[in-house]
Amino acid sequence: MSVKVAEYMTKNVITVSKDNTVRDVIKLLKETGHNSFPVVENGKLIGIVSVHDIVGRDDNEKVENVMTKREDMVVTTPDANIMDVGRVMFRTGFSKLPVVDEENNLVGIISNMDVIRSQIEKTTPKKLENIIKTYKSLGYNLKVEKEEVDVKKLRPTQNKIHADELIGRMYELKKGLAEPIIAIKTKRGDYYILVDGHHRAVAAYKMGVPKLDAYVIYLDTDKKLGIEKTAEIMNLKSLADVKVVESDDENSAKVITYKKNEMG
């Protein structure tokens, strides 16, 4: 199945109106770090204004007079194949495209970073499918949701991770490229059992990242799972209990401590 734009687009888009001024746009540029903003009227996309449009223009000039108009824009739709959109971006040089529905309502924005992220994550659905099959075969009723989870509410099931891979996951988090973790949520309490993505989760914990994208498997049970019991035997209560080691050799493994600002 092809990956759709809707799966990776940003839905909460910062927009401006045609009556805003160049001064307003400059203020938004400074506040957000973005380089362009869709121009919307009554929910409809009517243009886009970028940093290039306002260079040398009077601060009081209205956005309507400097923006690129809708008829001259490249846009996409939620059901478009994300790789097709990536090719369009590559050919045109645009770093992001507005996403509109059939009635030209702005519903999101997709960036070249989102396209890259969609490819990094492409192995996750297979892992997820295997885990789902396992729990279904054990007789559990379940549902799966993709959402953000609180890092501090994650309970690990793996007692060590590797230093070199941890550094890689820290880099991915800083660049917004980390794939979702996989976690299980039962009726037992307000926590998530971490199944896949321990390096990403520990990286987020050590960097002070509050939330992570996750595929959450909701199990309709209040019984303690086998992986929970195993975690208890290893004294794993939080991500702080996961050791960072240089190798798999338990006799020579050196525990490495990373500060939150380790990556600079």
Automatic annotation (TrEMBL):
SMART domains: CBS (SM00116), ParB (SM00470). Residues 9-64, 67-126 form the CBS domain. It holds the Pfam family CBS. Gene3D superfamilies: CBS-domain (3.10.580.10), Conserved hypothetical protein from pyrococcus furiosus pfu- 392566-001, ParB domain (3.90.1530.10). Keywords: CBS domain, Repeat. PROSITE patterns: CBS (PS51371). This is CBS domain containing protein.
